[in-house]
Amino acid sequence: STYLKIIHELLILRLHPIELDIFQAETFDIVSDTIHNVFTKQVSKIVRLCNANKIICPFSDSELPYSDNNQTNNNQFVLNLSNKSMTDCELNLLSKGLNFSISNGHFSCVDIVMPTDSAANLLPPEQQDYYRALIRQTMEKSNRPKSNLTFTEISALKSLRNDESIVILPADKGKVTVILDKEEYDSKINKLVNCDEYTSINKDPTVKIEKIIKQTLKNHENELGKPLIVKLSPQYSKPPHLYGLPKIHKDFIPLRPIVSSIDSPVSK
Q1: Residue ranges of the domains in the chain?
Q2: How many CB atoms lie under 10 A from the CB of residue 228?
Q3: Which conformational region is residue 253 in: left (phi greater than 0), alpha (psi within -120 to 50 degrees), or beta?
Q4: Helix (H, G, I), strand (E, B), or coil: what is residue 239?
Q5: How high is the pLDDT of residue 121?
Q6: Angle, CA of 159, 145 and 73, to the nearest 5°
Q7: Per-chain mean pLDDT for the chain
Q8: Cα 102–chain centre separation
Q9: Could you tell me if 85 and 165 are in contact, meaning their C-beta atoms sit under 8 angstroms apart?
């Protein structure tokens, strides 16, 4: 315990308070998971031994202590740096993390059929009909996904999406979801852009770059083949998008600039 106290004091001296909170929470999660796994394994072993020897056991498989249903997921954190007062439901929703996959129970068949049909065109002609029939058969047998959000969480999600006064971003480091005022975020982004590192241009070169890439691919059609050229050719490209991730471990919460090339001419 003496060594732990020394380590804890060193962490207090060297880490930012927010970093220290994240470190302590993640350490607690790791320890809790380890205890849960070991304890559950031992109790399950006792249950099996008691059942095998026909002895009354104080535990049952459905009543194991530290069961997953009783655990609180603290792996995600929310840091509200905005002037907006967040409700408990909104905070619980954001604590799921920005990578949480929402299943609302509805999906568009067109969104599935169109990409798969495009993929089928790349197959040999004798395999295309079989592939399309297989996709259609799979869709007919599949069940619609159940929603993994409650009604109040869905309402909170709509409220957050429609709120243009805030920006919700992942932190530069860690698993923290950060909420910033839109004005503050725009101000920090403008400070990043208005410096010597960037040069302003008068015209968007996206269309020109797309044409150059298409022409370059066409010039190498013999080496690459038409199917690969079709796959690599950019369509309806957009210019790269600049955004910032808040560095919550630093004073004044600066932004780390990130350039996203998704849907840009060179994204493929």
Answers
A1: 1-53
A2: 14
A3: left
A4: coil
A5: 83
A6: 60
A7: 80
A8: 11
A9: no
